[in-house]
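Appendix B, example 12.
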Amino acid sequence: MKKTIGKLMILAGILIFACFIYNGAGGFSFGGFNQKADHTAAASLKGISAIDINAKSITVNIKAEQRDDITAELTGNARLESAEKGNTLQLTVHPKPFQFFFFQNNELVVKVPYEYKDDLSVISGSGNVKISGGRLALNKVTLSSGSGTQKVDQLQAEELEVQGTSGNIRLKDVRTAEGDIRSTSGNTELENVTGRLNIKQTSGDLRASFSAVDAPLSIKQTSGNAKLDLPDDADISLEATSTSGSISHSFSFDQISSDKRTLTGKNGNGKNKIDISLTSGNVSIE
């Protein structure tokens, strides 16, 4: 028995030593030893009209600042690759293979100048995506995360696409001309989001609070509950249907017709149309 334990300890020591050696060449590591690799990249704004970020399974944090260039800093046991192809700045994170225990805190922080006005695309397989800093006005923003949370605060975009597979989506103080928000499973929370919005959820709950409604809104939900908080002076015409759920409201419409699973209402001149369709689940309009 003692011989067996001794052999196992020797084998473990050899493996740990090999991990340290191989990690120095970009290979695997034992995450429990808190080994980290920091990588940075920078690019001038000149000639850049698109930023594409592919981060696979780490957190991506986009920060808007008063600065002259675009910078990226990666923490954790991974490798950052930066390239300029035409007018596109590409930032790609490559996790190191054979990472045991997964204790590393991997994060990519990208700092973007307020003066940048063009396109931004972020793909994170299972990591979180965050945009903050305010005063950032872009052309097209595309965000996608497989199972991480996506959080956007204070953003203006002509086109906005947000897609989540099993994580939550949270948008606050966002202005867009055209917004497409899709969640396969997970919850969606909108606070003070304006623009023409198309929201599709396969499962999960939707909570949306609007301080103003200035464009059409479409909500299609396969399962889950939806709660909408509308301003009292909303100029809207609303149609809501639920196949196997219920529809309730406390909003004071000027005109209304409703039963358990359908509701048609009008407020003001009915300028902005709101369509709500639920296969199963309940909807509340307040």
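The two ends are 70 Å apart (CA to CA). The helical segments are 2-24.
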